[in-house]
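Researcher: Go.
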Amino acid sequence: MKRLNLFASLIFAAAALVTSANATTVMVLGVGSSAQYKTACIGAFLNLAGPGASHYTSGGTTNGVNIAQMADSRSSSILPEGGNLWVVWNAAQTEVWAYLSVDSVVGNRGYFAQPRTTLQLNAYVESNPGKNKIAAALFGGVADASAVPPAVYNALNNAHFTAAFTDIRPEDAKFAQCRTASTLESVDYTGLGYGTTMVSACLTGPTQVGTPIKSGVTNGATQANPVAFNISGTDPFTGISIPAFTTIPIGAAPIIFIVNRSDTSSGGLGEPGGPTNVSLATIQSIYTTGAHCDTNTLGASGTNKPLTVFNREPMSGTFNTTEFTNFRLTANNHTGTQEFGVNPSALNSNPLTLACGIGNRFRAIGTGEEVSGVFNNPAIVGVNTNSIGYVFFSFANIQPISGTPEYGYLQLAGVDPLQATYTTGELPTCSEPCPVAGGASFPNLRNGHYRSWSLLRVVTDASGTNYTNTKNLVVAAQQHVNLTDPDFVPFLPQGTQNGSNEPGLTLYRSHFLQEGVSPNNGLPNGVGTEHGGDMGGCIETGGNNSGTGVLSCRQ
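Model: Structure:
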């Protein structure tokens, strides 16, 4: 989540010099998607930091100031991006791993900007205990540290990010930035209106800093900031050359549609025999027409009632995966978009709080706001009980609304995203740790029947220390995902886990020309030179093994 917090730079001034005899080395400093926040931290703590390691998590603000944020020095017009932080360090405080959760496109910018963006830490973390944003049970019962030690603080504060954790490929992140920060094209929405140049000029003369995308959930108090970056050639602000990069696959996670089912009266989403499935045609009519926000459209059979629909910001990896696997499809609806009818300069478009049929559409910035909206947070004016949104599945993302029949998830096109067979649709809980047998998680993603998913990956240097350290962290996360919080299907086989073999991901999405980058699937075995876009690409067999055969594709 991005929060607008203007503050004096002296708050983030460097602390006292390190007094330890041994220098503290930053092994990995990541920025990006919330989908990988937890498992990356667990992997660093359990596999890499060694005996006596410590961890610390925090986020939000103190006295109106971000506790942790990404700073982009390329222009004074670029606002900082706040997020949730985790830090892990070894017993000797000589090695440290850290991660700032923002979103995928911002994370890619954080890595590709030249000079690279930096992590800024508020002095708050040096004297206040961690917030235990990740359960102590996942660390063997070890709770957050009482503070970040001076040596670790000094090593991290103003350090450059070394990796971007992302739900979409860099080419797709660049595409999303270009599409967002361009003039409005209201026929097929190739440009979304948050910039002043045409989308066709993005590679040569882009809008450097676009119009902030404001939240309807908080009435503009939170926002996402479209800022230009390139993934090759030279930086659009500084002209500095961009180093070669590579992507390291982590695993695959589904996007699920979540609903508030607390209204059990006639026409409510929780009425007896209420909606359990949404077809592609139905979800498109709700999200891409600006007209069909009502419970009967979603499948309630009783009295028709208003439906509140929550969108994400168009720079979000969650937004773009949903857009290109469900809404903006090649043949039957290639102009469909969640941004239909949105004009950033028009009333109620930014912040997005537009009427939609008898219901409303709201913009949520970040997963937390999306879930809060469906939760029917009373602070959000105009939201009714019957509401729908979407999130990348993780136990942390859905925790506020899991384990109760009042909230649930829907099948998409008749396929359950989480279980082999749909039962109650109640969102699962995790009494951490909640291990699963190898190969058991997300069966319909693994077999190719569930369409709305993306491969999680990390972007880092093509070679050298940053590559080696990031690769080690990815391996650690894959080794522990089934043993702690099974939030994704690990990309590579993991051997026997909990009595069963973990085959890894045996599918991939076909790649295509994106932002001038030609496609290459990087197969077999995921070791080729992968490039080109893949969000919404065909689901094909092969994955980390050789093989062919389309299972499903953009319609």
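Model: The domain at 252-446 is CATH 3.40.190.10 (D-Maltodextrin-Binding Protein; domain 2).
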